[in-house]
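ERR on first pass: missing label on line 2. Operator R.T. fixed the label and resubmitted. Corrected input:
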Amino acid sequence: MKTKIFFSVAIISSLIIFFVLFKGLQNTNIYTPQVDVKKDIPYFEAKIFDSDIVKNSNEIFQKENFYLLNIWSSWCAPCRYEHPILLKLKDQVNLEIIGLNYKDNIINAKKFLKELNSPYRLILSDENGIIAIEWGAYGVPETFLIHNKRIIKRYVGPLNMNSIIEIKKFIE
Amino acid sequence: MFNHSHTTKPLFYKISGSWGNHEGSLLLWLLVLNLFIFLFLLKSKEQDKNYRILTLLFQQVIIIGFFIFIIKTSNPFNYIFPVPTEGLGLNPILQDPALAIHPPILYLGYVGSSVIFSATLAATSLNYISKNWAKHIKTWVLWSWIFLTLGILLGSIWAYYELGWGGFWFWDPVENVSLMPWIALTTLLHCILILERRKILTSWVIILSISTFTLSMCGTFLVRSGILNSVHTFANDPERGLYILIFLFCLIFLSLFIFFFYHKTEDNQKYDFFWLSKESSILVNNWFMMYFLVVILIGTIYPIFLEVINSEKISVGPPFYMKLIIPFLIPFLFAMAIGPKLKWIKSDIQNKINLSIFFIISFFLSILIIKNLKVNFLVNTILVSSALYLFLVTSREFLIKGINNLAQNLAHFGFSLLILSILFNNFFSTEVITNLKIGETFKSEKIHITFESIEKKEIKNYSSIIGKININDPKGLSQTLEPELRIYNQPNIVTSEADIKTNLFSDKFITMNLVQNQDYFNIRYQIKPFMIWIWLSVLLICSGGLISLFRKKI
Amino acid sequence: MKYLKYILIFLFLFDLNLLSANENNSHSKITKNLRCLICQGQSIHDSDSEFANSIKILVSKKLNDGFSEDQIYIFLKEKYGEWILYDPGYNKNTYFLWLLPLLMFIIGGAIILKRFIIKKN
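pass 2 clean. output:
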């Protein structure tokens, strides 16, 4: 009797473990932070690209309209791919695109913009990557859609045509 | 039956003609399985015929399971290979001699545990477990234990040399997974010593044998399926994972069934030993070992459970293991020093004065060592003194007893040396991380690091950058180290090859890294004391096992 | 002779003491406890990815600003989630993680006591 009870307990617990591991197999093992959280924008101070003027986040995002903060760098290949798509958003009335130049060499960055055109209304520079961390970013490129000092949408990795459509919907 | 497994082997070659990494390793696994069963047949001639046949049967179940695994999941006609498998073969980090012999040796250990598993199941179902059986299986336990220890050592050495950040143990899932069967096996090894003398603790021996193999399989599952995230990235294929998982649980059900319905409980056995005896000291060993095992097991698989149940992701890393293991290591070390001195059944502690003198010496020595360090004083003092205590007691044993009881003493001595070297390595490691351009010098009171030059070379599939870095220490000693950067072209990977200068007391370890878009290099220089002692002490532990094997034969 | 050996060992260790003294102890302690999001499986301290390098700079900056270790953890946890910490704190998600091993230890001890030590008749 005792044996049977122990046996069934052992069987049931191993079945549970089996089930959990089975379920676990279907999850990905690569961690990505949650991206669909709506948060207030972080406070930060940043130098404006190619100058010594320092601005803080309140000054940068003071208007009521939409902002698109794009983290980019001249050494990042996906940024190059993403660039024409950003340019398509350049003329949106309700939207200001702000670039955050991530850990870049200023000469290369300028060359990059000269070659591909600049979609940015304002470029901030993030020499050591700290501002990107304030935003919770962990790679380049990343893009944040901001309204009323709140992040309403975050894109990890390069933007594509679908994200453009989505962003346009948000703005309207 | 034996023929069957042999005739299938050429077939495997045909099926996995590509000799990819995954297939290759499975094939190797099967090869070793077959080899071991052959050895088992040779070695067990004096055993009961039924027992031998039944062991073979269980072993065949395992072999067939893996055979089906190969056909099912690695047959190129049924499945198109996911790209990562191919990439793995090219991964330059894995092209290393230490890593080349690491898997086979580890497999020898794992497969040895499968023989123990089958033999235990066979012995249980025939009620064949006896002192005699314990003697016979002990050889297998020892062999697999030695191989497993060596395998883990090689893996650790590889990580130290190749991963390029100077650590040797990261509590990474893949490492934990190899450590778990090792702990179970070590426990079994101690437990078998009791069984060898008197027929007690049989259920416990059965459970340990089963769990050793189950944990090895579990390791294969965790590593191969990619369910866990690890530095040692292997091919991720849930399909394979699923198969191993099902197979693993079939084996678990089988062994549970046999254990509960065939095993005769030991009602007639008397535990007539005194609380202070060799038996109880071995029980204490088992108790602590099981605790360590549980810590590692839970730490490794807990994130999977949490994610499935709660869909929250957490990391369980070194701090967790440190916090739970270190406090328990202290009594464990003391028990390791005193335990072997006890006699069977009933004992008394002899040489009390001597033992306490040693304790006082080790305690004061550790106070002196720890005093000037910026580490937690209390915990570390006790920890070091317990390890030193074991060290002193076992060294004294060498002097007075000589080769009597050498195997055990050597292994315990090796363990104390291991703990001491790891601790000192932790305390005294220094590190300088700096960015240097060519020609620049990093200066501090203790050290000057000069980046002299770089040299570029083109080699077949990669281009290499070798830096010449001069290290000047305050005593005026100067040494040039040459770390290397390899930029592979096929999969575009940059690897950093450390340059390590080893001497008896410390390793000098230097790596350099490219910094994106900058003209300087990131230089990381570490002095790691007692590195070589860590490897040596593990070898000592191994040789303890070897001697025990050797002496038995005489 | 034996004592001489110990004295030598001791002197040797003492000598090493002078070498050690890691200046930025808390910095390396913190970065070793952080997991890198880029090369997952490595700590920030060990990693050389851009992300890890930035975090290292951030940690030293925060330390300079007078942040405590825990405040830095809270800051990063808020940005990247629990996952970034190698040391899973003691909270509702991890009760079992911390307590289960200890519970097993107690149960093991109880079994040994009950079956082998006390029952002596």
